[in-house]
Amino acid sequence: MNTLSYKTVSANKATVNKEWVVVDAQGEILGRLSSKIAMIIRGKTKPSYTPHVDCGDNVIVINADKIKLTGNKFAEKQYVSYTGYPGGQKFISPKELMAKHPTRIVEKAVRGMLPKNSLGRTLYKNLFVYAGTEHPHAAQNPKTIKP
Questions:
Q1: Number of structural domains, the chain?
Q2: pTM for the complete prediction?
Q3: For 56-68, what is each residue's pLDDT tens digit?
Q4: What's the confidence (pLDDT) of residue 3?
Q5: What pLDDT is attached to residue 1?
């Protein structure tokens, strides 16, 4: 019996194969799309997944302004932020946030599904969200996937 064949191989920064992926968000439901994007960014779709290493792909999301929310969440859901000062708690609905910054809804949803540590902050830098169909990452030759 060859004992070398039973060694567990962990990926590291030098051995990881990172790719670029384009995801079209037009007509997709926010939560379902965000969970799939978070899995791709984390690297859980690859056989060489290692929990403590950035082994996921870089994800480009286009048409973020055409995302859908189910039910009445578009008007009733609230995003909460707090400045740290008395009376500094702010609420904004997805409808208002979409009017100001159309990409932030997808960014907030994906960020909430990543780990809350230094690895999660590093992984979040692999997400690029754009409101229209154009993106400046054509030189990376991204492949398009259907979520």
A1: 1
A2: 0.91
A3: 999 999 999 999 9
A4: 64
A5: 56
Q: Is residue 9 part of a domain?
A: no
pLDDT computed for residue 8 by the predictor: 80
Q: Which of these, 96, 22, 99, lies nearest to 63 by C-alpha position? A: 22
The answer to whether residue 23 sits within a structural domain is yes
CATH number of the CATH domain containing 62: 3.90.1180.10
Residue 79 lies in a domain: no
DSSP 8-class letter at 94: H
| C-alpha to C-alpha distance for 127 and 61, rounded to whole angstroms | 8
Contact 43, 1 (CB under 8 A): no
Domain that holds residue 32: 18-69+98-145
Q: How confident is the model at residue 2 (pLDDT cuts 50, 70, 90)?
A: low
CB-count burial class (<10 Å; 0-12, 13-18, 19+) for 135: middle
Output the CA–CA distances (angstroms, integers) from residue 14 to 9, 41, 57, in the order listed.
13, 17, 14
